[in-house]
């Protein structure tokens, strides 16, 4: 009989329900407590999710006083930093939702707390559990493409702007770049082995979100709904990164890796106004190469699967706790993802290229 893994959940909104569903698939997980800053919300969540004897708190620090193995951080972005650092400092492993935080400094602090306390910090990028993402990574890592010198990623929804906490800078930190952009960045950077970002030159706008013609909460909308960036990565790789929550266009194109021996094109699955981004599944993968001097396009077979990616993410966290690590999607890597988002916002504000400084951790 395996040891019972005791879990706490901080933040009880939409994504917390997906975490509960994931933990529920495991016999040896006990959701011991939940916390939500809004009075009464944790109790309602326990009732709605039928969490039985789980304890409810409004202050996450009270939850962290309990004997817990791991904590799911499911708060809006602005609270990821404080809750994560507090959890690590009292010796809990952490699965924090994406994006990692609101600023690079916060992410650095989170990684330092993880190292100092020797506790895992993993970030909730469930598309990683799609086996087709692994195909993309293995192609890039195999050397089949030769030297990869240019990567284009991102995506665009024709009209898919969220509301609530996601559109307020004080709560979300950033808009489309962080909300859906962090997935495309993770896909590309993970395939490349998370090279260090060096500089960013970016533009952002919110012509749709801040216009009442397109958004019912336009008066509260102060993040970007569109962004484009040119990022220099270590190893002489250039990344062209673009994202939109709304636009008058069907697509911002596929993700592509250009190498000296071959190119790889990856298109997202799904159709409709909310599709075209990397929080969903892979639609197709194609290799562009020369065979006997002929320009050849080879479709790579997609793995059809029925994996619940959200469950897989939570299960992997529990397995990592059981095995004593390593973190499945390490904060130390995702720090670079956050550094790019941070650089995009700085560059867009200053209207010029900015350097990215990541200190030794
Ligand atoms: N992985 C995914 O596919 C996915 C999907 C949706 C959201 N998310 C991420 O999950 C996070 C939460 O999103 P959501 O849609 O569930 O948001 P939400 O606004 O529905 O819920 C967040 C909850 O956290 C609570 N909260 C805020 N500050 C808190 C604090 N300091 N302590 C405790 N509770 C606090 C709020 O009261 C709210 O109930 C965001 O970072 C978002 O980007 C990830």
Automatic annotation (TrEMBL):
Domain GFO/IDH/MocA-like oxidoreductase as annotated: residue spans: 136-263
Gfo/Idh/MocA-like oxidoreductase N-terminal domain span: 5-125
InterPro entries: Gfo/Idh/MocA-like_OxRdtase_N, Gfo/Idh/MocA_oxidrdct_glycsds, GFO_IDH_MocA-like_dom, NAD(P)-bd_dom_sf
Keyword Protein biosynthesis carried by entry: no
Keyword annotations: Oxidoreductase
UniProt protein name: Dehydrogenase
Naturally occurring in which organism (per UniProt): Paenibacillus sediminis
